[in-house]
Amino acid sequence: MLPAAPDEEGAAPVPFYAERGPLRRISDAIFRRPETTIFVVCVVLIVYFSIRNTAFYSYTNVVTMAQYTAPIAVIGAGEVMLLDLAEIDLSAGQVYLTAPWIVVLLAQRGVPLGWAIVVSLLCCIGIGLFNGTVVVGLRVPSFVATLGVNYVLAGFVLVASSDITTEMIGTTGKFGQYFGIGNWAEGLWGLGIVLVIWALLKGTRFGLHTTATGGNELGAAEAGVSVRSVKIWCFVIMALVAGFIGIIDAIRIGSLDPAAPGLNEMLSGVSAAVIGGTALTGGKATVLGTLIGAVVLGVLEDGFNLIGISANWFILVEGAVILLAMGINVQLGRVTQLGRFARTST
Amino acid sequence: MTDARPGDGPETGGSAERDVPAGAAALQVDEGRHAVTGPDNIIRTEGITKRFGALIVLRGIDIHLGRGEVLGLVGDNGSGKSTLVKILCGFHRQDSGRIFVEEKAVDFHSVKDARACGIETVYQDLALVPALTVYQNLFLNRELTRFGRIGWLRNGEMRKRAREYLSDIKVDIPSVDALVETLSGGQRQAVALARATRQEAAVLLLDEPLAAMGAKESALVIDLVKDLSHNHGVSMIVIDHNYTHLFELCDRLNLLQEGRITLDQRVQDTSIEELTELMVAEYRRRVTAGEKELER
């Protein structure tokens, strides 16, 4: 029975690999992508606002939108890494606000600007390391751990600043131009950071291990992926990019408000990620979608201003867009899933 | 590879027969019908014991696995099959006893150590990541990269090699770009097996590879296992509860009862009836022992 006939059993020559044709690939590439929905929404909004008010596509307005979008996109892209792990960092927005405060507080004590920024970014890395270690080492859910850190940082800013608004430093000269004041400075920094995170997540071993950890933590660990260090690194990168874009943003605006709520900025980032097609449950993440999501939020805010609708409406519409985009994404996901099953089960 | 020393042959053969536990005689072990131990063992153990707290799981296990051989481990729940496999793959550590890989004594402290010796395990939960593609799963943690520490993935090369390897071992999957979550149970098991063997694993440990699988799915996995063993010379230890599958898959069977090996037979020298009888006898013996205990 044993060594008899393994060959005769599979006599019918079945093609092992029925790869898809080019047309199918293109249609797959378009319709299966989680970013498709939000991209369509984005284009529709841009066309709509451009028709309603020609000032929408004026140079100054595009600059404004880029500046508004950059921090949301960066925080969103950072959150995507964590959402990919089925984790979240609620402190990211507060890190974004705290980093420039550390720069200013150090400068007030005579530390040169360059060093103040370096130390501030090191503090951000420290915060990320702390978040990651608490989540991985003490097994505290990231939602709780980072919420705690968020309030600690918010409290620190209030105490250290005595709740007094302060001027940001480093806003002058070439340095100021490159790191915030220049028209495109913030937008380009933001775009650069988002692209780096995109490449990291899509193209590298680290990114693959992040997705693997989020998709099946035990399985990834059994395959030898060091899931703990992957998680900690993601928290570190999140805090670092949030702090960096926070400093750039503060240099552009020129002043620091100690009472600014960091949770809002963080939630905008998470909104961008979610409407862009990233799942909160891990294993499905798209940095590109997050970038488009951030642009949609920027376009909405700016467009509403231009056509003279009250800012109060913006919040309402933002909520509606999140609900709508999510609803469409989930339904599209179900349809494509059914299609896949139909094909694999033949 | 074949560095089995001639001197080891008789010694090995002797130990397999000598160390049959005394109590096993009651379980009708016919020593004359023991499978012959070849000199070319890829894995051999001597007197492996393991206890978890007060529970003694393994009481001196001597097994041997020939090159290219498929060995089935049979036994009731709690007989120690899984524990034995977990010791061989470095997940647990034995309390006493020795493991030899290619007749060299080894000491496994982790799954990594065992892997370095060419021992791969396919876990019951498969360890695949559903949200990743077939080729990403095949290469998980062994990715082909460039640019050193940056670790830029060479996706094209990985796809190509995955495709080649899968058709080499005759695994039929719609595409290496298919997400694992879209595959059937049998296809997933096939991918898990492919991943384990891709790194030229010399030994594959399979813990219930056919659990919860339909007839068609099982056939797919059985064909793959046979192909790996016949055409690629992979040695395997298989745990399964389904005797029909085991008789189809394996060259030899070992029966584990209460932490001891009570039967070691080539499949053609034994039968499902014999195994069932042995297991039922063991069960009856325990029941009577329990009753006597109660009477006292």
Number of domains of chain A: 1
What order do the strands of the largest sheet of chain B run in, or round the barrel if closed?
7-10-11-4-12-13
CATH architect. name of chain B = 3-Layer(aba) Sandwich
CATH top level assignment of chain A: Mainly Alpha
Describe this structure in words.
- The complex is a heterodimer of chains A (346) and B (296).
- With 346 residues, chain A is an all-alpha fold.
- Chain A is built from 15 helices and two strands.
- The longest helix of chain A has 34 residues, at 311-344.
- Chain B has one domain (8-126, 202-295): P-loop containing nucleotide triphosphate hydrolases (Rossmann fold, 3-Layer(aba) Sandwich), CATH 3.40.50.300.
- In chain B, the strands form three sheets. Chain B has a six-stranded mixed β-sheet with strand order 7-10-11-4-12-13, sandwiched between helices.
- In chain B, a hairpin with a 2-residue loop joins strand 5 and strand 6 (104-106).
- In chain B, helix 6 runs parallel beside helix 7.
- Chain B is globular.
- The A-B interface holds A 1-3, 6, 9-10, 14, 16-20, 203-206, 208-209, 211-212, 214-216, 218-220, 222-225, 282-284, 337, 340-341, 343-345 and B 111-112, 115, 123, 125-132, 136, 140-141, 143, 145, 150-153, 163, 166-167, 170-176, 178-179, 182-184, 187, 195, 223, 226-227, 230-231, 248, 251, 267-268.
Secondary structure elements and pairings:
The complex is a heterodimer of chains A (346) and B (296).
Chain A: H1 6-9, H2 22-31, H3 36-52, H4 59-84, H5 92-108, H6 113-137, H7 142-161, E1 166-167, H8 173-181, H9 185-203, H10 205-215, H11 217-222, H12 227-253, E2 255-256, H13 262-275, H14 287-306, H15 311-344
Antiparallel strand pairs in A: 1-2
Helix pairs in contact in A: 3-14, 4-9, 4-12, 4-13, 4-14, 5-6, 5-7, 5-12, 5-13, 6-7, 6-12, 8-12, 9-10, 9-12, 10-12, 13-14, 14-15
Chain B: H1 8-18, E1 41-52, E2 55-61, E3 64-66, E4 70-74, H2 81-88, E5 96-101, E6 104-106, H3 111-116, E7 119-122, H4 134-138, E8 145-146, E9 152-153, H5 155-168, H6 185-198, E10 203-207, H7 215-232, E11 235-239, H8 243-249, E12 252-257, E13 260-266, H9 272-295
Parallel strand pairs in B: 4-11, 4-12, 7-10, 10-11
Antiparallel strand pairs in B: 1-2, 1-3, 1-5, 5-6, 8-9, 12-13
Helix pairs in contact in B: 6-7
